[in-house]
Amino acid sequence: MFSCDDAPHQGNILHRNMRREYPVITHGRGIYLYDEDGNEYIDGCSGAMVTNIGHGVQEVAEAMYRQASAVSFTHSSRFTSRPMIDLAERIAALTPGDLNHVFFVSGGSEATESTVKLARSFFLETEGPDTPRSKVISRLHSYHGGTLGAVALTGHIPRRRKYESMLVQFPLIAPAYCYRCTLGLTYPDCGLACAQELERTLQEVGPENVAAFIAEPISGAAAGAVPPPDDYFAEIRRICDEYGILFIADEVMTGFGRTGEQFAMDHWDVAPDIIACAKGMGAGYAPLGAVALSDRIAAAVEEGSGSFTHGFTYSGNPLACSVGLEVLNFIDKHDLVRNSREMGEFLFGKLASLEDNPIVGDVRGKGLFAGVELVRDRATGECFPPSIGAAEVVTQQCMARGLVVYPGSGMVGDRSGTEGDQFIVGPPLTVDRNDISEIVDRLEAALGAAAQKLL
Ligand SMILES: Cc1ncc(COP(=O)(O)O)c(C=O)c1O
Questions:
Q1: Average pLDDT, the chain
Q2: Cα angle: 61, vertex 86, 93; to 5 degrees
Q3: Rounded to the nearest whole angstrom, what is the distance from the C-alpha of residue 277 to the centroid of ligand 1?
Q4: How far apart, in whole angstroms, are the C-alpha atoms of residue 185 and residue 188?
Q5: pLDDT tens column, 59-75
Q6: Residue 13 maps to which CATH number?
Q7: pLDDT for 339-351, tens place per residue?
Q8: CA distance 136 to 120
Q9: What pLDDT shows up at residue 206?
Q10: What per-residue confidence (pLDDT) applies to 5?
Q11: pTM
Q12: Do 140 and 251 belong to one domain?
């Protein structure tokens, strides 16, 4: 029988993968991480698009110390705090449209769960207690979090499979994934058929039963940084408005500068009704997330029952909010949204060289959020057999060269979710040209070695 004692470093932890050996990280500085054995890694994916301001930022450590020394915890059912008030004001100023109200949480799954409860609450307030609106439409090959409600929204089949029988069944529509259109069409001749699926689904299930549509502006973990066609979200907005449902943008991965704009929806000047955010707003220094909502939704709650029946013990935690404020200060002070845009252009220029590698099928993304799709045959787009674990092979080759990337698989096809390999490169937004050149050099070498193993 396998025993945890047989595996170094396993100890008492139930790791995500009990067969893998995990390096023990001792510290981080800037874009670098260091382990107990003296190895150095470039954090080429910011953990999971989290550590956007880099590691070891002293201003944040000092802000944490100050807040923890003053008061670390107050419960949001009785008190508010200056960091919570100030952070809400900052977020309201950064979000698009009239998303002037903020509900705090501790991470992305709590954020997306909160958005759908908020959407239903909006209709309870405006249509009354008998409103049938309880469905939320989402997309295939999406990721909205690991709690059961968030998995029910998630369209990435490998993350659903084991829990399918426990999930509330919501409609899933085609993603905007032009490299491998799920509908077998080509943009722009398709007439945005993937967006039209939302309209068709609303007609099928009855718009009166639907509270919201949720989508990642740029599909992240489940698909590998896939942006939609430029006119996609304007069409989604039109359909949501025409059928009277709310549009939720899940900006957990893309928010706060990752894609070269403050929020990814800013690329297309489309304002959602609700935004979910987390990751980069705490930048890994504290578990922190938020839901930003429009004036209309806040007014419905305020003028209706007066309460949003929802919350978590750590909602609006003063310590986490003080970190969030300091992270936003750092982003501002170092002009990191602009840096993400400019260094993103430099990164994509460099990544063009990967096109010489026979296992690179597609390179896509925006800002410092780049996805690379792996193929067995570039001409036909044929995938590697899932048993080979191509994304994992590439990741291991990167790790061996001191580069951390973020792999994923199972995003090809309709409902089988077995094929397809990709990985994301998303370094801290503090990178300069030298950092990017070093990242791409290591990546090229890793992909070269992986191609030899895989083909
Ligand atoms: C778009 C998106 N939504 C939600 C989540 C869940 O966030 P968390 O892991 O912080 O709960 C993630 C995490 O990767 C994500 O990328």
A1: 96
A2: 115
A3: 9
A4: 9
A5: 999 999 999 999 999 99
A6: 3.90.1150.10
A7: 999 999 999 999 9
A8: 9
A9: 98
A10: 47
A11: 0.97
A12: yes
In ligand 1, the atom with minimum distance to the C-alpha of 110 is 11
Kindly state if the Cβ of 48 falls inside 6 Å of ligand 1.
Answer: yes
Q: How many domains does the chain have?
A: 2
Q: How confident is the model at residue 3 (pLDDT cuts 50, 70, 90)?
A: very low
Torsion (CA) 135, 140, 146, 148 in degrees, nearest 10: 30
CA 6, distance to chain mean position in Å, is: 35
- Sign for the CA dihedral angle at 131, 135, 137, 142 comes to positive
CA distance 291 to 237: 19
Q: Closest Cα to atom 7, ligand 1: which residue?
A: 108
The reply to whether ligand 1 has any atom less than 6 angstroms from the CB of 252 is yes
Whether residue 323 sits in one domain with residue 259? yes
Asked if 427 and 307 sit in the same domain, the reply is no
Residue where a domain stops, chosen among 278, 312, 333: 333
